[in-house]
Amino acid sequence: MTTGEAILVEGLRKEYGEKQALSGLDLAVPRGTVRGLLGPNGAGKTTAVRILSTLLRPTAGRALVAGYDVSARPDEVRRRIGLLGQHAAVDEELSGRQNLEMFGRLHHLGARRAAARAGELLERFGLADTGRKAVGKYSGGMRRRLDLAASLIGSDDRGDKSLILFLDEPTTGLDPRGRTEVWEAVRALVGGGTTVLLTTQYLEEADQLADAITVIDGGRAVAEGTADQLKAKLGADRIDVVVRDAARMEAAAAVVGMAAGSAGVERDMDRRRLSAPVADRMEALAETVRALEAAGIEAEDIALRRPTLDEVFLHLTGGDAA
Ligand code: ATP
User: Exposure pattern of 188-224 as b/e (b: 16+ CB <10 Å)?
Assistant: First the structure.
């Protein structure tokens, strides 16, 4: 059976005893796109990735990867996917090249083919110069790029276009430089047509890499769209006011709430900043300026802005972003 979607999930459930890790997840990822799976701790992201990569069996529901049912045809699925899990099993004492060759042998590539494939992948992920260095001496970003190379070793001659890559929190624990290196490596793959499902707790990562984002919470999808669509769905733009005198924060909050026509004024005491959603941008701005002046409250800054993805995420899940 084939579908136009690289990944198609319907009503997927996974129970661990009483605990429902997935409670009816639906997901459709078109070929050649990057989907970000965003959710708080325990939302079910890793469980979903493990089921889709055939490491775990679902309790109920259906999941097709590359058109094959993960439960009925796990062998066909495995030949078409790469998986970058949270912990990769590279050997620190061996060089990057030796590790890749070893993974190649584990995938039954044969010594010559494994060596050639290792060379290709080192080149591709910018590791050609450091291929002979022990992995224990690699930086975080280099190491993660090696993990990425290792995850592709078995998908040998299929080419990028038919490949589906699962990345489970690929940059957790990396410094900003390492993160940028991994992002670049992922972008290069996507440029070649690879489909990617990426779980992340970093909103910026989803914003940077994903064509569309599925927000999951409590084991099911609660929202889906591009970052901009999700922001628009949350609706209202916001007005931010920085109050000069911290002692006037409460008085200012009352004034801003009235002027913006919103009861939901948020207060950031440390930065002396108030923020409220607005229905009509220009009217709210003019009214806020006028009302603060009338109340004799001095503002250091007043600005209109779109909601951030963090605010969208908090609104949708009622939890923490990271
Ligand atoms: P994180 O970002 O923390 O990895 P996640 O979104 O990947 O979170 P999962 O690891 O998929 O979430 O877990 C979903 C839920 O299922 C959690 O409540 C978790 O405690 C529970 N869970 C996961 N694995 C098991 C297991 N083997 N036995 C029992 N409960 C489990």
Answer: ebbeeebbbbbbbbbbbbbbbbbebbbbbbbbbbebb
